[in-house]
Amino acid sequence: MKRTSKVTRKTAETNISIEINIDGTGTSEIDTGFKFMDHMLTLLAKHSGVNLKVFASGDLTHHIIEDIGIVLGECFEKAVGEKKGINRYGYYFVTMDESLARCVLDFSGRKSLILDLKLNECNIEDVAVEDVRHFFNSFAENAKMNLHLAVLYGEDQHHKIEAAFKAFAKAIKNALTIVSDDIPSSKGVL
Hints:
4 helices, Ribosomal Protein S5, domain 2, alpha+beta
């Protein structure tokens, strides 16, 4: 079974097209119009092993980044399908220089989000901190997953977010690894 998907979302505000291959090698083609977001999505692909193509345009930074989270979450939900054989749970700690991030997640079919990124209210390169939060919220909601993502400590805002994205990517890789032939739930469905 191929674990791939492609989703396009066109609204009056944005035009987003995303394609993923969960069983890829971490290659990426990213063009969001925002250098920092391009960098974070490239890291996500590389460290999760998911092949990722993202093309995004629109009116406002907030709308574009939020809609990328929506579409990327939908792609994962679609590609994972009935979740047969996946590990389901994933966790990872990642250091980025002085920063340390922890991600624990569950592809449960239900959304829960706990974010503690310890970010100052500022822009990180060309993206506002609030847009990073919206990205993770939109992703978790549309991937139908529990996502607990925390920066335990750090000073540099860029380093904190980079550690968080890398921990997120590695936890995804862990959770989506095929480990059996069963649905990983006592209910028999996720």
